[in-house]
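so my prof wants the structure for this chain in the tokens format not the other one, which i didnt know existed until like an hour ago. anyway here's the sequence
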Amino acid sequence: MYKEFDYELIDFLTVYDWPGNIRELSNLIERLVVTVYQDKIGIDHLPKEYRSSEIVGRQTQLSLKEAVEDVERRLLRQAAKKYQNTYEIARALQTSQPTVVRKLKKYNIKVKNE
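here's what i got, hopefully its the right format
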């Protein structure tokens, strides 16, 4: 069996928050591969619950600045859950601690132990 994802779907898969973690992603991919008869799977093949996501509607309207901010926000949220303080986050993200503090404040993200 040969299946291919179009670029718009790949963009969605990388931007979506995945509250169910890797299992949710794995289940969705399996579902798409099994249920879509075409060789190329697109964003229009997503189940209704994913198509209603604001990410799908925003994808074509997303500016570079907004895309960068989305990625920053997601990385900082993940790091804030994983690390104990802003110094560890800065080390992990290979940036300065003042930059981490400024961006955490910008996105209103709290570090788990601070």
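also thought this was worth mentioning. The CA atoms of residues 19 and 25 lie 9 Å apart.
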